[in-house]
Design goal:
- This protein has one domain.
- Helices cover 82% and strands 0% of the residues.
- The chain contains 6 helices and no strands.
């Protein structure tokens, strides 16, 4: 029996991913709250938060790899890690320039990682179920990325637009965690 169809392995992976999704949702909600508090009062803290967001995604992707041991190819996750590290560096460079450059970096990152999330969600749907929120989130991320790039050309748009993106991400992670729990209960 393949590892991806082993009921024990599927249940273990589903439980680990569900936990990770709850942690990712909590992180996003805390990040949004802090961004809303500090964006107008502290450029230093805001800059740190902007660097932290893609760096956290890298760490969460490492946990995702651990949570999905014995399943399909990890290539999308490893690509996501490389892209996240490059994005963190690019955000650091963009912060020294201006807000539109930061939005361009986040937009490009959102498009690429959205496509990766779509790929992972579609692949996991077959073995784990409960992935439609992640599939929707990947699609929404691509659309958000395109809008960030478009917004970067408007002088009145600011960093607060990223808060909505992260808040929707938290919602999708919560939905995926609950949906994965429901799918896991049905399989048992």
């Amino acid at each position: 029996m393949q590892a991806s169809t082993n009921p024990f392995r599927v249940a273990t992976n589903a439980h680990a991913l569900r936990t990770l999704y709850f942690v990712r949702a909590a992180f996003s909600l805390i990040w949004v709250s802090l961004l809303l508090v500090f964006v107008k009062s502290s450029p230093t803290i805001t800059g740190f938060l902007l660097l932290l967001y893609p760096a956290w995604d890298v760490a969460a992707t490492f946990f995702d790899i651990q949570a999905s041991r014995g399943t399909s190819s990890k290539l999308p996750q490893y690509v996501n890690i490389v892209i996240g590290v490059l994005t963190t560096v690019a955000v650091g460079v963009a912060l020294k320039q201006n807000v539109p450059t930061v939005l361009l970096v986040f937009g490009t990152w959102a498009i690429i990682t959205g496509l990766i999330q779509l790929t992972l969600g579609l692949g996991r749907r077959r073995t784990l179920g409960g992935q439609w929120p992640m599939i929707l989130s990947g699609g929404q991320s691509v659309i958000a990325g395109v809008s960030f790039i478009a917004m970067a050309h408007s002088p009145t748009i600011g960093i607060l637009n990223l808060a909505g993106y992260s808040a929707f991400g938290a919602l999708y992670f919560l939905l995926a965690a609950f949906r994965l729990g429901k799918a896991q209960a049905i399989q048992q």
